Amino acid sequence: GMLLLDPQNIIISDNASPNLPPGGSIPDPAPPAPVIDPVTRIYAATSGTPNDWVVMPTATITGFSAGNITLTANRQIIVDTGFTRTATGNLILLAGQAGDATGADITIRAGADITLNGLLSLDTQRGGIFIGSNIQTTGLVLNSSGSITQTGGFLRHRDGETTLLSVNARSNAGGIDLS
Hints:
Helix content is about 5%, strand content about 40%. By secondary structure, the chain is mostly beta strands. The chain starts with a strand and ends with a strand. It has one helix at about 60; strands at about 5, 10, 40-45, 55, 70-75, 75-80, 85-90, 90-95, 105-110, 115, 120-125, 130, 135, 140-145, 150, 155, 165-170, 175. Strands 1-3-5-8-11-14-17 form a seven-stranded parallel sheet, with no helix packed on it. A seven-stranded parallel sheet has the order 4-2-6-9-12-15-18.
């Protein structure tokens, strides 16, 4: 099964009080530190109010054993602090899983560089994808109901710029700007 906590939004950050979107808050008292289910390899933020956030320290991802990890949120996912995961495995971020969610974006903030020994998949059914930092991985999948925009950084294969990076990007109702 999935591990369920109160918030509907996930922010990956090593800052205990990260900069949240307007109206966003961390419940008081704060929920326990997120734990990825060791069997399903899933962490889900699927209950509580639409403005509740849970802070996931990068060590929760980087310290996880080899294998794929899925983080799913009813609403938004923000990567606020960059990280490098050396264990082999894909990282799948699923936002906008609630049927009534709007603006359920996935945002990788400037300076939040991601390096993975696997594929990075960003998928939101009810929002856009915004990339503002460097991503180094073995493959990249971007699937959005809104626009997909790269505002900074580079997209590169983790083995270096001379190795081809496979990118699959699909937007249902917006443009794609990866530059």
